[in-house]
């Protein structure tokens, strides 16, 4: 049950975003499941309420606003625009820990590639100002640095693709890095299977294994086996490049203090250079809006587990002294999402959302 006070606060925040030049938009509560499944795979089912319509097929109760807002924007020509919205979102909870399954989101989005650093700073500044009475604790990151580092690794495209896919899954990402860098022993079962492929074709091994179990067909299984054999021949990721990834994952400092170390890392992995330039431009844009980079916490990997469509700047604004609560506000850049939903056309985009139900009375 959403409280009347929360709806009133959501309306106030929406008015604030309209005053900042955003056009209010609405999206359907029931969203086609296909788009979300294409973007996030079956993982989204664990977090969304899914139903089936006899005519329209699978649908989900709206898990957030960003995807439908991006879809609508890209369908309408993708010109520069600012949007705001307010309404319910729905999330399944695996355990009953008092977490709401229905709550309000109020958001602000910018679609404009004219000055991405300035747009990042504008969204952060607007949400932080909207929450000023609650004295939020800010934290920032930049997943674009980690993505750039992965794309610059001297290894096979298959390995880079696997790492990119799991950037938002820290445990799986770490295991892949350990294996690709030669720092982890190959499991005995995997080694034995690959050894068999030296003497027999994948199709032969599949035929001898008995009836197929599961959803994968024989062709898909054969392709996977062939990929395992080919991957064995790929040299390990160098120690220097693996160290760059390790440093990015562990770096946790103030934004002003992060720039020099990241520039140093770019000497070992030049692909980091353009991402470092974007970070520096953003720090300058934040400074122009009164946010001192010397006092703004920064960790490149901040937000990896909770912000899976963000691919650049990310931030959270949290309640002081309440680490048990979700963030009051989250936001970031999602350029790749616009390309995925725009049929290849991409528009630089950044936005953020506030959860009015977490605010309570100002401190």
How would you describe this protein?
- It comes from Jannaschia seosinensis.
- The structure is a single chain.
- By secondary structure, the chain is of the alpha+beta class.
- It folds into two domains: 4-27 and 63-149 and 244-358, BirA Bifunctional Protein, domain 2; 158-232, no CATH class.
- Helices cover 44% and strands 17% of the residues.
- The chain is built from 14 helices and twelve strands.
- The strands form three sheets. Strands 1-5-6-12-11-10-7 form a seven-stranded mixed sheet, with helices on both faces. A three-stranded antiparallel sheet has the order 2-4-3.
- A hairpin with a 3-residue loop joins strand 3 and strand 4 (57-61).
- Helix 5 runs antiparallel to helix 13 and helix 11 runs antiparallel to helix 12 (255-268).
- The mean pLDDT is 87.
Set out the fold topology:
Elements: H1 4-19, E1 23-24, E2 30-32, H2 33-40, E3 50-53, E4 57-61, H3 66-75, E5 81-90, E6 102-111, H4 116-130, E7 137-142, H5 143-151, H6 157-165, H7 170-180, H8 188-197, H9 202-208, H10 218-232, H11 239-250, E8 253-254, H12 255-268, H13 272-288, E9 297-298, E10 313-318, E11 329-333, H14 335-341, E12 349-354
Parallel strand pairs: 1-5
Antiparallel strand pairs: 2-4, 3-4, 5-6, 6-12, 7-10, 8-9, 10-11, 11-12
Helix pairs in contact: 4-13, 5-11, 5-13, 8-10, 11-12, 12-13
